[in-house]
């Protein structure tokens, strides 16, 4: 009996220790040469994971403080994460303005996330929204695009190298970036969308990773793979995450973009399964999650409200509630190691 009781205690202790190890698990950046600043951001996000969620706000690149400032007016607090886009406004190149503001925001203590609504590499700028960003590529064009040495691959290089030039400026200014290219890739509405398997989005992602990490030495980037929340709306589907994931060697943080308050528990669990211990985030949202959602989905690292949805998708009470809850960190709360 004494041996039985001893074994029960031993099993209980091992279970507690195992739980601690799993909860304390963290990953190094996928880029082995990641900058000290990038490592610091990732370390910090792991240190608060499961205990806190960081507030975040996207801003259109022609008004890069409007919505973050509005969050401050509503709540008395600035969001911890500031974000904008290299490509939303196709009528002009916002790149240098994005760089200047990102440097300023980092110096002020904000975490920086940048994305890119890229035009089709088959097109010339300025890129139209429906005509290019939301247009399609044929299977033959996709194969050419992802095959080094082809004419379309070289056009793509010119396109991504231009953005790399801006990211190089941020690297040289020691600004780490939560880099989220080719977002919502499991949806059907962008030219890079719904390209399944190893020859699909995963290959394009790996090609960009190789170019940015090994050629441009963009060691300031943390690679954020931001899919769309799963849905089966006809002609507006977003399919299972696993079909588009390039793998743990190429992704630091996995994300989901959630609109229509579509915080399905099964979708959250599916993303956790693919992440396999890596961080997950609400990389783009319309309506903010409720306290009940966050209680049942505690592993989200941050949320990023899409610009005008701060007003059009939420009441002021909803914004005040999520900023005011004990488990939400605002700009003033973030202290990087």
Share of residues in helices: 40-55%
Q: What is the overall silhouette?
A: globular
The CATH superfamily bears the name Glycosidases
Give me the side-by-side strand order of the main sheet: 2-3-4-5-6-7-8-9
CATH class: Alpha Beta
> Biggest β-sheet, characterized?
8 strands, parallel
Arithmetic mean pLDDT: 93
Q: What is the tally of helical segments?
A: 12
End-to-end Cα distance, whole Å, is 49 Å
- Please state the CA-atom Rg, rounded to the nearest Å: 20 Å
Task: Please mark out the parts with pLDDT under 50 across 5 or more consecutive residues, or reply none.
Answer: 1-23
CATH fold-level topology: TIM Barrel
Q: H/E order of the elements?
A: HHEEHEHEHHHEHEEHEHEHHE
- The strand count comes to 10
Assembly type of the chains comes to: single chain
- As a percent range, the share of strand residues is 5-15%
Number of domains: 1
Class based on secondary structure composition and strand pairing: alpha/beta
Just name the CATH architecture.
Alpha-Beta Barrel
Could you characterize the architecture of this molecule?
The chain is an alpha/beta fold. The chain has a single domain, classed as TIM Barrel (Alpha-Beta Barrel). Helix content is 41%, strand content 15%. It has an 8-stranded parallel sheet with strand order 2-3-4-5-6-7-8-9, with helices on both faces. Strand 3, helix 4 and strand 4 form a beta-alpha-beta unit. The longest helix has 22 residues, at 2-23. The radius of gyration is 20 Å and the shape is globular. Mean pLDDT is 93; it is low at 1-23.
């Amino acid at each position: 009996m004494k041996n039985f009781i001893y074994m029960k205690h031993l099993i209980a202790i091992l279970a507690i220790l195992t739980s601690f190890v799993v909860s304390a698990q963290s990953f190094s950046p996928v880029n082995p040469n990641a900058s000290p600043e990038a490592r610091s951001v990732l370390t910090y996000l792991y240190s608060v994971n499961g205990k806190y969620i960081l507030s975040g706000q996207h801003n259109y690149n022609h008004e890069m403080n409007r919505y973050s400032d509005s969050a401050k007016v509503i709540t008395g607090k600035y969001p911890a994460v500031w974000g904008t886009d290299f490509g939303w406004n196709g009528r002009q190149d916002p790149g240098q303005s994005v760089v200047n503001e990102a440097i300023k925001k980092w110096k002020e203590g904000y975490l920086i996330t940048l994305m890119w609504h890229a035009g089709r590499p088959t097109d010339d700028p300025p890129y139209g929204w429906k005509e290019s960003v939301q247009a399609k590529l044929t299977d033959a064009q996709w194969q050419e695009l992802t095959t080094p040495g082809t004419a379309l691959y070289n056009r793509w290089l010119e396109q991504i190298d231009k953005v790399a030039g801006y990211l190089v400026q941020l690297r040289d200014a020691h600004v780490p970036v939560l880099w989220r290219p080719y977002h919502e890739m499991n949806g059907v509405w962008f030219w890079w969308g719904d390209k399944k398997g190893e020859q699909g989005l995963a290959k394009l992602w790996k090609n960009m990773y190789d170019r940015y990490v090994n050629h441009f030495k963009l060691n300031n980037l943390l690679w954020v793979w931001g899919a769309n929340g799963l849905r089966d709306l006809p002609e507006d589907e977003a399919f299972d995450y696993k079909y588009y994931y390039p793998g743990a060697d190429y992704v630091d943080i996995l994300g989901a973009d959630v609109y229509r308050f579509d915080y399905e528990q099964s979708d959250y669990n599916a993303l956790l399964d693919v992440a396999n211990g890596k961080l997950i985030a609400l990389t783009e949202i319309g309506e903010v999650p409720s306290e009940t959602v966050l209680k049942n989905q505690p592993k989200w690292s941050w949320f990023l409200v899409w610009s005008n949805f701060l007003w059009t998708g939420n009441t002021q009470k909803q914004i005040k509630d999520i900023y005011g809850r004990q488990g939400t960190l605002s700009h003033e709360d973030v202290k990087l190691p």
